[in-house]
Amino acid sequence: KTPHQYLTQVRIDHAKLLLQQPTPISHVCSAVGFDSVTSFTGLFKKYTGQSPSEFQQRQLQRQTDISCVPLKFVPNCFVHPEGDSNK
Fold first, then answer.
1. Which of 34, 43, 35 is nearest to 9 (CA)?
2. How high is the pLDDT of residue 63?
3. Is 14 exposed, middle or buried (CB count within 10 Å of its CB: 0-12, 13-18, 19+)?
4. What angle do CA 28, 34, 39 make, to 5 degrees?
5. What separation in angstroms does the CA of 17 have from each of 12, 44, 75?
6. Cβ–Cβ contacts within 10 Å for residue 12, how many?
7. H or E segment at 3?
8. Nearest 5°: phi and psi at 70?
9. What is the residue-level pLDDT of the chain in tens, covering all 87 positions?
10. Does 3.30.413.10 match the CATH number of domain 3-79?
């Protein structure tokens, strides 16, 4: 990786953390060091395969799902520490 690619990856990773909250995309863009929402959106999609708004919607939906049905997101081995009781 070039230094520029590394810096871009660090910025995208930070953006992914910020996008887990209902923060406007323009605020995330400037918070991670991009001057243009268009360039931020293009690079974010290049690195993640989805736009910032798509990523944010999925993250927020996941948080909602986790709060509604938390056991669905816990690996089965942790739900039944003594093993499967159906054996």
1. 43
2. 84
3. middle
4. 100
5. 9, 13, 23
6. 18
7. helix 3-18
8. -60, -35
9. 899 999 999 999 999 999 999 999 999 999 999 999 999 999 999 999 999 999 999 999 988 877 777 666 666 666 565 555 554
10. no
Rg (Cα) of the chain, in Å, rounded? Answer: 18
Q: Model's pTM, two decimal places?
A: 0.74
CA dihedral 65, 25, 13, 48 (to 10 degrees): 80
How far, in Å, CA of 39 to CA of 51, rounded? 11
| 34 vs 77: CA distance, rounded Å | 42
